Amino acid sequence: MRVPARLVPLIAVTAASALLTGCFSGGDSGSGSGQGKRIRLAMMQPPRSGLSPLSDDAFKLSRWSTAETLVKLDADGDAEPALATEWKQSGPSWTFTLRDGVTFHDGTKLTAEAVVKSLTRAAAASPKPRILDGVDLTAKADGDKVTVTTATADPLVPQRLSSPQLSILAAKAYKGKTVDPVGAGTGPFELTKVNGTSSAALDRYDGYWGKKAKAPGIDVRFVPDGTARAAALRSGEADIVEAVPVSQAAVLDQDLITEVPMPRTNTLYLNTEKGAFKDAAVRAAAREAIDAESIVKGVYEGRADVAEGLLGPALPWAAELRKPVQRAKAGDPAGKTITIGTFTDRAELPEVAAALQQQLQKAGFKVKLDVREYANIESDALAGEFDAFILSRATVLDSGDPAAYLYSDFASDGSFNIAQLADPAVDKALKKAGETPTGEARRKAVIAAEAAVLGTDAAVPMLHERVIQGDAAGVADVAHDPRERELVTADTYVK
User: What is the DSSP track for 155-199?
Assistant: First the structure.
């Protein structure tokens, strides 16, 4: 079990600060321009692919406000103008009108040809950006417009194009085998220097098409050690700190940390195809035996939200639309033996498994645990080798829309159907959600699909995770984004 945060010695935090002493001082920074202080940012994960936007590194570029997309998403997940000002659908094609007067950081102009080059490189990448999995996408220039066509009509094309992995960069970024974003974006900050996996620097871009950045620049350090990141906030070495560990949050000034609801749900998947949980009444018995609140308090030290459904507070509209779900009555476990699988990669999950083992045994089940690294357990989970499986699952993927997650996890032919669910009513609801145009109608269809899934007890949502972000006292207007697309914006500055 993890030592409670209140018992973590302060000396551990103090010692960790030595890892960051002087890391934001000195000459790695760009020169900047204008008045004010540069923002010192401690990030959790180093770049994995040289900051290529075709990888998960794209989210760093987005969080630094250096690379932009044709559209962005509002709080509800609906598309809003960014580098494109408007768009129109015609069958499988969408035509986007580009914003006038935009220049890349190398001084070249944003043109339809530049957009096509970026989108074509992404569509041809191997592996493809996640947002294009299963999507055959082509782009064609026409004056100041770009037409994007998919193999079949897709109501989510604008949302897909909001993914940071489809950022639009200058032609210079694509000259080599890898995509190099240095000096090639369109955002309020220009990426000027990258020092491998240790640091990066950005300067305010005074030619930005929108609101000018208040801060003269950003100095980034990659600090994988969570204790060291927390120490950087406590010692004043950093202005903004990503992902403060739960174990460190209690020893920090609570005014300096913000808990951001994540679109991530900790869920118990029950095998509906074989074993004890093939019986809906036994699934219902497991659902009723689970005390999620005690798991939130004990394992997450209160820094999570008890789940009411599969979709949590990061999607505020879900609670507003949700209605009571009809479920089967609980039966008698009658001493049935079940095996629960989970993985060690997320530190809390083995603890969650141990808590569930006790709760289910108290209800009359005999419970075995199988805990491994994720790489060594995923194939067995997908093959239905467990009676139950605990998973921390992102509920909105790169499009900002939960329909894809629901389909992959609960459709008869879903690619991530750990519950082995094959229910015609669920399939019908999922199909309708996926085909409904975006907006209020789609959100209602998504909640109807969620209700159909919950009614089977194939999945028991337990809690919604939060990420803890640290902002120093002198920092203003930092973004707290559940989708982790924004962090330092044009409005962010150090007083």
Answer: TTHHHHTTSGGG-B--GGGGSSSS---TT---SSEEEEEEETTTE
